[in-house]
TrEMBL record:
Xref: SUPFAM superfamilies: Zn-dependent exopeptidases
Biological source species: Novosphingobium mangrovi
Identification of the protein by name: N-formylglutamate amidohydrolase
Xref: InterPro entries: N-FG_amidohydro
Lineage of origin: Bacteria, Pseudomonadati, Pseudomonadota, Alphaproteobacteria, Sphingomonadales
Superkingdom of the organism of origin: Bacteria
């Protein structure tokens, strides 16, 4: 496998290929640069507010396959959330799921965005234009319940998100359900709201994509990540073929 390209803002694993699969996991890291202090409890950095648990392992396993590459965020979403637009205050959150982030108060937001947000999105644009994939897989995970609403359980094994273009979701849903999975349609989030990548990179250009959220307890260990990597590689190939037909 090709050596990873690593910068402050992102990592690329595998070799991007025209007509292949590109996996995008922007919440794949809980890294905080040494010169940034968030001033939160250290244990929170291993929880969902800081990282999408499991997605990095899935993406890296998928990128071991010829024809698949992965673009992984290389900084915690608490430092800079690249799944939000630059104008969204939550791109550099001052609070998340009931936890204050004191270190993000009164900072130079423009400098933070220029350092992390723009390089990530510029690289994604470059990959999509220089080696257009047959399918872009946007990969996230979610908690079984919100810490602020522990009584509201999320029964779905995964959810499919989209804005106007639901082609990938409509093709993938029966494939996932055929494996005995409970699939949320625009659940637990809506792609019409959490859609920075959709809006900027795929739907705006008519590019084929599949946006999936996986419940993190299913992919918190190596076995779960390996299982979902195989599953998603199989389903992505089928969706890409159908969308390209």
């Amino acid at each position: 496998m090709q050596s990873p390209e690593i910068t402050e803002a992102y990592r690329i694993v595998g070799a991007p290929r025209f007509g292949g699969i590109l996996v995008v996991a922007d919440h794949a890291s809980n890294r905080v640069p040494d010169d940034i202090a968030l001033d939160i409890a250290p244990e929170l950095m291993d929880e969902h507010i800081a990282i999408d648990i499991g997605v990095g392992g899935i993406a890296e396993r998928m990128a071991e396959r010829q024809g698949t590459a992965a673009l992984l965020g290389n900084v915690s979403r608490l430092v800079c959330d690249t799944n939000r637009t630059e104008q969204d205050p939550a791109a550099i959150p001052e609070a998340s799921d009931g936890h204050a982030i004191p270190g993000n108060l009164g900072i130079d937001r423009e400098a933070r965005l220029a350092r992390f947000h723009r390089p990530f999105h510029d690289k994604l644009t470059d990959l999509l234009e220089s080696t257009p994939p047959a399918l872009t897989l946007i990969l996230h995970s979610y908690t079984p319940c919100l810490a602020s609403k522990p009584e509201e359980k999320r029964p779905w094994h995964c959810g499919l998100l989209y804005d106007e273009d639901d082609r990938g979701a409509r093709l993938a849903q029966p494939l996932l359900e055929a494996e005995g999975l409970i699939v949320g349609d625009q659940l637990p989030y809506s792609g019409k709201v959490y859609n920075a990548a959709i809006e900027r990179h795929v739907e705006s250009e008519g590019r084929p994509y599949l946006y999936i959220e996986i419940r993190q307890d299913l992919i918190a260990d190596d076995a779960g990540q390996a299982e979902w990597a195989v599953r998603l590689a199989r389903i992505c190939n089928k969706v890409a073929l159908e969308m390209g037909a």
